[in-house]
Design brief:
310 residues, 17 strands, Immunoglobulin-like, alpha+beta
């Protein structure tokens, strides 16, 4: 029995309509899923930026996701993390090992995903803070920046065997800063910089000569002399010998200022000659006081300079 052609045409049309509606539903579902993912990433980025912004760091359009880190944050290990972005076509990422001169960078260009994975191999001999800075560009214009810092520790299966200062004997001038490096040898035989893990375990023998101004810096004060900076980690100790010398140039300049002030009052004195051989803070102060006394008419003889010699 033959089927009516009109029946066949209706059946074909219905099948085509079914396929068409199935495609429409599929496209709709895919679009919904994509929108949900986009909204989730946008919300996540906004939340990250809000948290980062409250910490005083400018970030627009991208953020290093602090919740995305995998891998132990220990020396010699490799960490992985994500950078979320919006409307960015290039990411420049810099890595800085704080307290050292070591740094590196990498660039990622379009096409970029909303969430982009990065990895970084931590050097075996590094302990301290790793600073990561992400720069986001659009059409070669910087539109976003984000900073994230993590602490890198020694592997938990290692023990510290000994500590030492890289340079145990140093000399600085007053009001001059010195950057020192404290090193520790671990049970794997690798020596690592350990300034950051000592924290409060530093003792200055004479605080009138130097003071600590940071985890790895000391500053010479106005008193000339020698003192020590002792670091202690558990039962291990190391000693840094610091000699502070007078800043001769600063003393002379200070003396000359006072001498010119005296000369400006019409008094007969040559500042260069008066100050040429000053050798100590006490002598410079004595000469300055003497000039003030001469201005008041209390001292007549310029030979008073000789009485200031120490």
């Amino acid at each position: 029995m033959k089927k009516d052609k009109s029946t066949i045409n209706v059946t074909s049309i219905l099948k085509l309509l079914g396929v068409f509606f199935a495609i429409l539903i599929g496209v709709f579902l895919v679009s919904m899923i994509y929108d949900k993912v986009s909204q989730r990433n946008a919300v996540e980025l906004a939340e990250l930026e809000q948290g980062i912004g409250s910490a005083g760091i400018t970030s627009t359009g991208l953020a290093i996701n602090p919740n995305s880190f995998t891998g132990d944050k220990t020396s010699g290990n490799t960490i992985s993390f994500d950078i979320i972005q919006q409307n960015i076509d290039k990411i420049n990422l810099t890595y800085e090992l704080l307290g050292t001169d070591l740094a590196s960078f990498e660039t990622r260009v379009a096409p970029l995903s909303q969430s982009n994975s990065f990895t970084f191999p931590i050097p075996k001999d590094f302990i301290g803070q790793l600073k990561m800075t992400a720069f986001g560009y659009s059409n070669n214009r910087l539109i976003g920046q984000n900073v994230h810092i993590i602490n890198i520790q020694a592997p938990t299966n290692l023990t510290l065997q000994s500590i030492r200062y890289e340079d145990p004997d140093v000399e600085i001038s007053e009001q001059q800063s010195l950057r020192f490096k404290l090193l520790g040898t671990y049970s794997d035989g690798i020596e690592r910089r350990i300034n950051d893990i000592v924290a409060s375990g530093y003792v200055i023998d004479d605080p009138a000569i130097i003071r600590r101004t940071g985890q790895d810096t000391v500053e010479g004060l106005s008193q000339q002399g020698e003192t020590t900076l002792t670091a202690t980690v558990g039962t291990l100790t190391a000693t840094l010998n610091v000699f502070v010398k007078i800043n001769q140039e600063r003393l002379v300049q200070k003396c000359i200022v006072a001498a010119y002030q005296y000369q400006a009052k019409g008094k007969d004195i040559n500042p260069e000659v008066w100050c040429a051989d000053v050798t100590s803070a006490e002598e410079e102060e004595c000469r300055e006081v003497s000039l003030a006394a001469k201005l008041r008419g209390e001292i007549e003889s310029v030979n008073v300079k000789e009485s200031c010699k120490r």
